[in-house]
Amino acid sequence: MISAGILLALISVVVAQSQPYGQCGGQGWTGATTCTSGWTCTYSNPYYSQCLPGTGGGSTGGGSQTTSPTSGPTSTVTSLNALAKSKGKLYFGSATDNPELTDAPYVSILTGGMFGQITPGNSMKWGPTEPSQGTYSYTQGDAVLSLATSHNMIVRGHNLCWYEQLPSWLSSSSSNATLVSILQAHIQSEVTHYKGQVYAWDVVNEPFDDSGVMRSWLYQNVVGTSYIADAFNAAHAADPNAKLYLNDYNLEYSGAKFNLALSTITTLVQQGVPIHGVGFEGHMIVGSVPSAASIAANMEKFTALGLEVAFTEIDIRMTLPATAALLAQQQTDYQTMVTACMMVAKCVGITVWDYTDKYSWVPSTFSGQGEACPWDANLVEKPAFNGIVAGLNSQG
Ligand code: XIL
After folding, report:
1. 313 alpha carbon – ligand 1 mean position (Å)
2. So which residues are the catalytic ones?
3. Distance between CA atoms of 94 and 256, rounded to whole angstroms?
C-alpha cells in the first residue's frame, strides 16, 4: 500500500512537468517549468515558453531561446529586422491591423525590435478610407502609422486601387471619365494625408489575372489598362518622394501571369509612368515554392528595368492539421523565399502577412488551410522562424 506521503510526492513529480505543447514559462507563470520526457521547454518570448518535441537543449522556461522541433539552425536571433539590415536590406516587417493592437503580448513582439516595418492589412484600403464619396476616414490607418513611427518602424501603405474591398458607392454604372476622376480624388486625398510618412505605396494591387489576361473588374472593364498609369500619376503628384509599387501574387512562378506582368510593367516604365517597385506578395503553399534561384530570376526581370522589388505579404499555408513534416517543409520554404530576396540586391525588404497564425487571413479565406505564419497562434516561434534566419544568413 502506498502511503499518503509517497502519493503526494508522486503527484508533485507529475504536476511538476508540463504536458506536450503546454506552457512551461513566461511572465506571471507559476506552473511547471520542465516538460515530460522527450519534450523541451522552449523559450518563445517574455510571456510564453512552451513544451515542444525533442530533448535537445534541455532549457527551462526561464532559459534562452533554444531548439526548434525539426532540424534547422538553432537561433538566438531577437531581431529579424536587425539581421536583415546587417545583410543590406532596408527592413524585415509584418502586417498588422487595428483589432489586434489591443492584444498586449502580440503588440509586445510586433514593436519590441523584432520587426522594422509595418503594413496595415486593411485599414488603408479604399473601402475603409472613403466610406462615402468624398468623405475620408483615416483614424484606423493613423493608429497603425503612429504605432509604427513611435517604434521607429517604417510603413508600407496598402493599397490605393484594388478590385476588392472597394466602397459600395463606387458603382459600375459610372462613366469612364467619372471613374478616372474618382480614382484621382481618392488617391490625392489618401496619399496627401500620409505624405512624407510612408516609405512606399502599393498603388495598384493585383491587376493581373492568373490566366495571363488583365483582371476583369470595374476599372479595367470601363477605363481600360490606362487606369494603372492614372493611379501612379496621381500618387506621384501627391507625394513625389514615396516609392510607388505595383503589387501582385504568384509572380514567384513563371508563366502567363508573370509574362503579362512583365510586359505591362515594361510598358509603364517605357512610358515614363512613375513606378518604382514591384511587390511580390509571397502567398505560398507549403511544398509548392519554386527554387530560390528561379524566384530571384523573376525578380531580376524587374530590377533590370531599374525597379526595386520586395516580398510584401509572405505566408506559406498548409492543409490542416499541421504535422512535424509539414512544419519542417514550411521551414525550408520560408528559407527558400528569404534566400531569393537575399540573392537580389534590389530586393529591398520582406514583410510577412502578420507574423502569427493568431491573426492570419488564411483560415477564413482558404478552407481547411492555415498555420501559414512563422509564429503560431500562441505567439510561439515555429520552425519557419529558423528558416527565415537561415535565409537571411544565406548570403554574405
Ligand atoms: C487580406 C486581409 O488580410 C484580410 O483581412 C481581408 O479580409 C482581405 O484582404 N492580397 C492583398 C491583401 O493584397 O490586401 C489581402 O489582405 C491578402 C491578399
Report:
1. 9
2. 206, 313
3. 29
Counting atoms of ligand 1 from 1, which one is nearest the CA of 125? 14
User: How many angstroms separate the alpha carbon of residue 315 from the centre of ligand 1?
Assistant: 12
Which of 313, 315, 361, 373 most suits a substitution to test ligand 1, by most atoms within 8 Å of the C-beta? Answer: 361
Task: Using the atom order of ligand 1, give the atom closest to the CA of residue 312.
Answer: 13
pLDDT, average across residues 124-128: 98
Res. 43: pLDDT tops 80:
no
The residue count of the chain comes to 396
Distance (angstroms) between ligand 1 centre and the Cα of 190 equals 19
Pocket of ligand 1, beta carbon within 6 A: 121-122, 205, 281, 313, 361
Per-residue pLDDT of 348-385, as tens digits, reads 999 999 999 999 999 999 999 999 999 999 999 999 99
Dist. CA 88–CA 285, nearest whole Å? 28
Of 157 and 31, the structure prediction assigns the larger pLDDT to 157
Task: Decide if 67 contacts 43 (C-beta within 8 A).
Answer: no
Task: Name residue, grid cell 518563445.
Answer: 44
Any idea what DSSP says for residue 78? S
Q: Of all atoms in ligand 1, which is nearest to the CA of residue 162?
A: 13
Q: Establish how many alpha carbons lie within 13 A of residue 392's alpha carbon, considering only the half-sphere containing its beta carbon.
A: 27
Q: φ and ψ at 226, to 5 degrees?
A: -65, -15
Whether 132 shows a pLDDT value over 80: the answer reads: yes
Q: Which of 65-69, 99-103, 315-319 has the lowest mean pLDDT?
A: 65-69
Location of C-alpha cell 539581421: 83
Pairing of strands 17-18, 200-205: unpaired
Read off the pTM: 0.83
Residue 322 backbone phi and psi in degrees, to 5 = -65, 145
Distance of CA 392 to the CA centre of its chain: 16
- Ligand 1: residue whose CA is nearest its atom 16: 121
The residue whose C-alpha atom lies closest to atom 12 belonging to ligand 1 is 121
- Assess contact for 391 and 77: CB atoms under 8 A: no
Separation between Cα atoms, residue 119 and residue 93, nearest integer Å: 8
State in Å: Cα 126 to ligand 1 middle.
13
